[in-house]
Amino acid sequence: MQRRYPSSPIAAVAAVILGEESVLLVKRVNPPNPATWGLPGGAVELGETVKQALQREVKEETGLEIESIELLTIFDSIH
Length: 79
Known about the structure:
alpha+beta, two-stranded antiparallel ribbon
């Protein structure tokens, strides 16, 4: 999938996973921004709900299976 100038919007998700006094971050391996720290997440795949995409991305990136999902915010990232 071409990311720089896509022909249509790319919906994505990011998880905020809280510990008692911590937030889970992952070190990115792939573009965009490899070798930086961020929230686990990624693009929504065709046919997935946002919840399914978030659960899949968290599992792929951390090995964790998450259940409780609350929408915190929605924002646009247009470059």
